[in-house]
Write a structure and sequence with these properties.
Elements: H1 4-20, H2 24-33, H3 47-54, H4 56-80, H5 100-111, H6 124-134, H7 136-153, H8 156-170, H9 189-206, H10 208-216, H11 227-234
């Protein structure tokens, strides 16, 4: 059956989207704090807003859980490629399908979860998870970029927007150390850059209101690098 791998890829996408639609921040805020994290501050279900609503401990937990969603979905998709299918018409259903679309779909599910009225997070933590499972070097580049941009701009939103863009730029370096990959990508290597671009465009779209405030000069800034603020606290 021609192009049966397209159906397999679609199945991976559906698995990724459904797993991505499970929102830890919404579930935890309702269970532990009797509220919906989306009712407060930026009204989204991401790790940053969760930190504001539930504290640093729960914010870190949610950051990790959101980051693991693309990793879990890609590992599930990868595992399915090892399932032998004896039917000659269906034998390439999973083995030739594109596993990394499952991770991108998990980010889409995180941002627009079907289980929670299509109102989710902004995709930054999940995109980091996607970069980690694609190539740890991309992940390291994104994390370092996030901290550098935050130090310079004092804006979490701008850091979240640009970090994946920096990783995307580095992904075009020819033969970026292939031995850094979790496993061999073989023929899927050529679509990885476009998957990273897709995750970046999602982050940009989800941070559109932040971008408008950045251009207007009214975006919220952090004070963690403010030395004068630290001196006041020590007095």
């Amino acid at each position: 059956m021609a192009h049966i791998n397209i159906l397999g890829t679609f199945i991976f996408i559906m698995i990724g989207y459904l797993i991505g639609s499970i929102s830890p921040s919404i579930l935890i805020s309702k269970k532990k704090f009797n509220t919906d994290v989306r009712q407060h501050y930026s009204h989204n279900a991401g790790a940053t807003n969760s930190t504001r609503v539930m504290g640093k401990k729960w914010g870190l937990i949610i950051l990790l859980l959101d980051g693991f969603k693309p990793i879990i979905t890609i590992l599930i998709a990868w595992g399915l490629t090892f399932i032998p299918i004896n039917n000659s018409d269906w034998q390439y259903l999973f083995s030739d399908a594109y596993v990394y679309f499952a991770g991108l779909a998990a980010i889409i599910g995180h941002c627009w979860p079907i289980f929670f009225g299509f109102r989710g997070g902004k995709g930054a933590a999940s995109s980091l998870g996607l970069l980690l499972i694609i190539n740890p070097i991309y992940f390291a580049i994104a994390v370092i970029s996030w901290w550098l941009i935050l130090y310079i701009s004092k804006m979490v939103s701008l850091s979240s927007i640009l970090m994946v863009g920096v990783a995307f730029a580095f992904s075009w370096i020819p033969n970026m150390p292939l031995n850094a990959y979790v496993w061999k990508h073989d023929l899927q290597y050529f679509i990885i850059n476009w998957i990273i671009l897709g995750s970046w465009l999602i982050i940009i779209s989800r941070h559109w209101s932040n971008l408008l405030r950045i251009f207007q000069g009214s975006e919220r800034k952090v004070t963690m690098f403010d030395r004068t603020n630290k001196k006041k606290k020590t007095k």
